Amino acid sequence: MTTTLAQVATAFLSRQGLAASTVKSYEQTLLSLLKWHGSLPIELIDRQLLKDYLAGLDDLRYTTHNRHQAIISALFNFAVESGYIQSNPASRLSRRKPEKERGEHKSDEIIRYLTSQELDILYDLLKKSNARLETIVRLLHRSGARIGELLSRLVSADFSVSYEAVAADWREVIDQSEKLKGIRLHDLRHTFATERVGLMGIEELRALMGHENIQTTLRYQKVTSARAEIVAKSALENLTKSI
């Protein structure tokens, strides 16, 4: 009797001991895979099919993409352990790396955020030159979303704009000011997080930012502490000079 991928996935999700939130998360992750390949016999799901499927998930940020891959690999590990197949076709597949042009960065990179002065300059330039980009920038700055996530939501809302078009508009605006050169769209996300350190608990900020690792969130706490130290030293120097 042939066992389909969908049947194995059902058994995988029905295991005892899984929290309801975990089951829901796994279901959402596997939904697309099952939509395309759920009716195939489990033994026909090979390495190349999974590579092609994962390559098609180009709208996901790299951390979410890697999480999808990890859950798919866990599904096929379960299939091996349950005797449905002999080996895991997802085993040792290369994981997608962060793409800087899409605003993706590893957690150990230096945080670059916009100061209040830089934000004033930026918004002033946007008001004078690009209303569409101003709207996108305000959404990024106020939500902390990644540019890829935001553009995906805009497409769902029938407001389609490509990353390339937004990036070109961004470069045109920031090149108008020496103080803004080198600033990236992704730095608006860093700015959002840095502004909220101290206004909420670190776990709340972690949830808001969607970080899987608390160490990623703690970077913003370190940045804010360093910034406060610089401001304090500057104030002390000014006070000393006035005495």
TrEMBL record:
Gene3D superfamilies: 1.10.150.130, Intergrase catalytic core (1.10.443.10). This is Tyrosine-type recombinase/integrase. It comes from the Bacteria. The lineage of its organism: Bacteria, Bacillati, Cyanobacteriota, Cyanophyceae, Nostocales. Coiled coil: none annotated. It holds the Pfam family Phage_integrase. Residues 3-80 form the Core-binding (CB) domain. SUPFAM superfamilies: DNA breaking-rejoining enzymes. Keywords: DNA recombination, DNA-binding. It comes from Nostoc favosum CHAB5714.
